[in-house]
Every structure is written in structure tokens, then in C-alpha cells.
Amino acid sequence: MRAIREARKFIEASPTDPSAQLLARLVLALESEADFHIAQIYQLNFDQFNLALEVLREWRLDRYYAGKGRLLDLSMQVGALPNPGEH
Known about the structure:
Helix 1 crosses helix 2, helix 1 (2-13) crosses helix 3 (46-79) and helix 2 (18-32) runs parallel beside helix 3. The chain is elongated. The protein has 3 helices and no strands. Helix content is 70%, strand content 0%. The N and C termini lie far apart (48 Å). By secondary structure, it is mainly α.
């Protein structure tokens, strides 16, 4: 998760920078599943714009793996239940 780490470092280093604040709002919207006007990322310079896109990609990938983990956990719980057809 290189882009997420890079975004964190950028935001930590320059928390009052408008670009850092915009990236922070993007992250908060992703985490809370709130609305975010994607056109706002066009305000970023080219490198920060690409960073925002990479954060989106990594976030989606991370959600996939988180969903897979929850499915596996649930499946293990169900698998531990007694089988109604067995005695």
C-alpha cells in the first residue's frame, strides 16, 4: 500500500496545505462511504492527482481483501456449526 503510505506522509508533513486537506477529505469520504465530488481532485497538481488515483485503487483493493476476510471468517463460523444431516 505504497500510495496510502505516501499520502499519509504528505498529509503529516503539510497538514495546512490545501492539497493535503483535499487528500484527507478523500480518505475520510472513502472510509465513511460519504459523498466526495471527484472533480475536486482536478485541483491537485499532476503528481498529487496521480497519488489520489493510486489511493483510490489501493483503497478498492484493500476493500476487496477486507471483504474476502470477512467472508472467510463467516464461512469458518458456519463450518464449525453442527451439520443438521449428521448425527
